[in-house]
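Supplementary Data S3. Sequence and C-alpha cells for construct A.
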Amino acid sequence: MKKLQSILSTLGAIGIALNFTMVYGQGWGEVSAGSAWPEIQQGFNGVPQFPQPVMPVPQRQAIPAPPQYAVPFNPAPNYAADRSLDELAREIENLKSELAKKSDKPDPKKGFTAPKINGRVFMDSVNIIHQDDDGLAAIGQGKNLLGFREARLAATGTAYDFLDYKLELGFEGTAQANFKDVFLGINDVPVLGYIRIGNQYVENAGSEICNGTTNYTFMELPAPAGGQFTARRLGMTSRHLFARNRVRLFFGAFGAQDVSSTHISTADHQGIILNTRLTHALMFQKEGKCMFLYGGYYSYTEPQSVTVNNRPGGWNLGMPPLISYPSENGHKMGLETVYQNGPLCLQADVFVRYFSEVNPDEDAMMYGGFVMGRYLLTKGDYRKYSLENACWGSLVVNRPFLLFQRGASNFMQGPGTWEIAAYYGYLNAEDFKNAGGVYGSDHEIGAALNWYWNPQLKWALNYVHQMAEVTSGTHGYKPSMDIVAMSCRFHW
C-alpha cells in the first residue's frame, strides 16, 4: 500500500512539473543547465520537493543610432529671376493704379439716378393748461393748437457720381407749397471741397438746432434760445472734412430774405448773411454711440431785425413778440458741446448776439442758451451722429414695437425705444432798456417722454413751463404759462 502511495505521489509531482513547464516555458531549464528536468529533492514525509521556477529576465534592446541628416545645398541666387519678379510686381502695381484712376472718374453714361421719394407727416396737439394774469395783461390770451405741424414730400438722388440733389416741398401752414430743402450738391470741387447751392440751413447754431425736425428730441427746439437762429435761406455753402472726418469746417453766403413761401424776393437790397461753423469730435466711436464733440459758430447779417418771439416751448400760440426792433446789422457768436455715452446724452449751446444802431443810434446785446439731457430707457439703443453734417441722425431701435395677428389672436412684440428728456433755456435782453422800449428775460424748463415704435414712428408727450420778466415803459410783468403737448410723427 505504501508503495502504491509513493508511485501516485511521484506521478502527481510529474504532472505539476509538466504544467509549470507549459506555463513558464524554459524557466526550469535555467536551474540546471546539464539536465532536461530540474533535480527533485526528497521533501517532508517522502513528498518530492521541486525548486521554485525562475522567471526569465528580458534582454535589453540596443537603442538605434539617430538618423543622419544631410545639409541641403543652396545654389547661387538667380538674379535674373529676381529681376523678372520685381518687374512683374511693378507692372501689377501700375495696373492697380490705372484701374483706381479709371474708377475715380465719373461715368458719363450713368447720368441721373432715379430719385428716392421721402416724406413726413407730423400731427400735433398743443394745450395751454395755465396762464396767469400777468401773462394775460402783457401778451394776451394764448391759443391752443391742433393740426398738421408738417406734411412734406421730397425727392433725393445723385448723378454722374459727383452730384446730389434734393427737392423738398412743405404743405403745412399756407395754401401753397413751400420750398424747404431745395439744392444741388457738388463733390470734390477744387479748394471749395463739397459745395451746395440752393435753399438750405444757415448753420448759425449748434447740433440740436441744426437738426432736421425728424430728429428733434422735443416737439420743437428748446426755447427761448431755439428761436434765435436763422432757418433756411437761398445761398451757397462749402464744407471741408479733416482728421478722419472728425474736424468739419463750414462756410456759407446767403441772401437775407426768406424765399421759402414767396419763392422769389423782389427788393433793391436783398441783404446778406455770412457764417461759418467749426466742429471737432475729440472722441467718436460706433456712429456716435460714444462721442464727445465741441465747436463754435459765427454769423453776420445785414440788415438784421431784432425779434424775441413769445413762443413758449417753440410753439406759435398767436401771441405778439416780446421784443421787436429794426437794426442795421447783427453779429452772432456761439459755442456748442455734445457728450453721448450709449443711452445718455448731454448737450449745451450758448450764444451772444450784438445789434448795431437799434432805435436808431443805440447798440444792444442779448445772450442766452440751453442745456439739455436725454436718456434711453431701453437697453442697447442709441442715436447716431453724422460727422459730415454735424447734426444728429436716426435712432437705433434694436427691438421695434410690432402688432400682428396670428389666427384669431392679436399679439404685441418688442418694447420699441423709450426716452426721457429735459432742458432749461434762458434768454436775457435787459440791454434793450437803453433802446427805450420793451426789455426783459425769459426762462423755460421742459420735459419729454418719447416712445419710438421704430426709427420712423414716434409718439411724444411734452410739458413746458415758461417764466418771463418783461418791462414795457413803467410797467413790469412776470408772465408764466404751462403747456402740455402731444404728437404723432412718422417719416419715410
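Construct B, processed identically:
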Amino acid sequence: MTGWGRLGGTGAVAGVALVMVLGAGTPSAALPAAARPGAARQPGPAWQAAGGIWRVVPTVSPQAAARTQSALFGVSLAGAGDGWAVGNLVTTVANPQGGPRLVVSRALAERWNGTRWRRVAMAQPVTEHALLQGVADLGSGDAWAVGFTGDVAPGTSFPSGGLVEHWNGTRWLIASTPGSSAETLNAVTGTGPHDVWVAGSMNLGAPPPAGDNTFFEHFDGTSWQAVPGPAGNFSEDPVEVTALSAVSPNDVWAVGTQNPELFGQPGSLNLAAHWDGKTWSVVPTPSLGNSSSQADVPTGVTAISANDVWASGVEFTGCQAASARGSQLAAGGRGPLLPLALRLGPGGLRRLPRATGQCLVPYVLHWDGKTWSLIKTPDPGAFGSALEGITALSVSDIWAVGQTQSSAAGPVRTLTEHFNGTSWSVVPSPDPGKAGDDELFAVASPGGGQLDAVGGAAVAGDPCLTDVSGTFCLRTLALHTTSG
C-alpha cells in the first residue's frame, strides 16, 4: 500500500480524549461560576487498590470546589524527578455581549518533581479555548506540548487551529508553526532539542487545501516546517494521527485512524506510518473490524527499537454515542463527536439495534521489524474496556492504561495492563473518585521501574456532579509506582 487509500468501512469515531466537554446545553450555556462552600474531596496517596502496586499521588485540580472540570490527557518524563502532564480546565468567563457566562477551556500543565505534581502557568490564547493533548519532556529546560484552540463565542464550539507550546526552562511560550491555522494537533515526540515532531488532523477545506498531506510538522532546533505525510486523498478519506514515538531522527512512528468521521458514516481502521529520515510511508496494519458498526482507534504508541514497537487501541463495535450528553469542542471540526472519556461515561454509549456483546474491545498492535500484528488484551468489563496509552520499560515490560465498564449505565473504572514478554494481564489499579467514573488517558516511564499515569476522576461530593445536571465532571488524577 502506497498511501492512505480507502481500506473499507468500519464504524466511525474521531479522536481519543481529543474533545473537551464544555458543559450542559449549548456551547454558550452557562455553568454558574460561584463555588459552593467546602472543597470537593481530592484523591490522595492513601487511596490505593488492595494488593496493587499503584498509588494515587495528589495533583492540582484547579477550582476544585467550583462547578468546573479538569483532566490530564498527556504525560511525559525525562527523569525520575522531572516530568510534565497536560490537559485542560473548563471554567467560565464573562460574556462580552452580556447574558450567561461563556464556558471556556484553558490549557493546563502540571510538573512532577519526584514527589508531587504542581501546577505551572501555561501561555493562554487570549480570546480562544485551549486544550492540550500531548507532551514531550526532552529535559529540564526543554519540553513541548500540543493541542488545539477554538473560538470563544455563543454558538461556536469547533477548533480554529493547532496549539504548540514550548517550555524553555523558565516559562511556557506559544510557538508559531506553519500549519497552526489548519490543524488539530494530537501528538508530539522528539529525540532532542533539534528533532521534534508534532502531528494531528487536517481541518478539511482550510489552508493548505483539502487533499494536502501536511499534517506533520518538524522542528530542527531553529524553525518549524510542514512535512508532507503519506500520499492520499484526504478529501475522501481524512486521516487523524493520534500518537507519535521516535527511536531516532531516522526512525519515527505515527499511528492513527483513517476516515475518522461521524457515527453512521464509513468508519475507521488502524493506520501506521513510518518516517525513514526522508519521507513518511504507510505500513499496513491489521484491524479487528470491517463493518459499518465497528471502528478501530489506535490511542498510543511506544517505540523501543527499530524492531520492537507497540501501540494501544480500542475498537467500538455495535455502539454509538448516546444523545444529550453535553456539548463539546470537536477535534478537527468534523462534527459533534464525543471524546472517548464521554462515551465511556455511564450512559455515554448505547448499543445499535440488534447489536450484542461488548461495545468496547481493547487491543494492542506490535511491530517486529517486518510486520504489524494485532493482539486482543484482557477485557475485565462486560460492557467493554479501552486502552488509551502505552509505554515500555523494556522488551518484556510493557504497560498500557485506560478504563473498563461492566454495563452501559455502570461505573467506569481505571484499567492498567502489563506485558511480561509472553502475555498480557490486568494489574489492579485504584479508583479514588468514588463517584463512578475514574479514567486513565496516558502513561509514561523514565525507566527504573517507575510509571506515571494520568487522567481524570469524578469525585464524590463534587459540586459539579450535584449542581450541573448532565455535565460530565472530572478532576485531575495521577497514579504512580516504582514497581513497574
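The domain at 47-481 is CATH 2.130.10.10 (Methylamine Dehydrogenase; Chain H). The chain has a mean pLDDT of 77.
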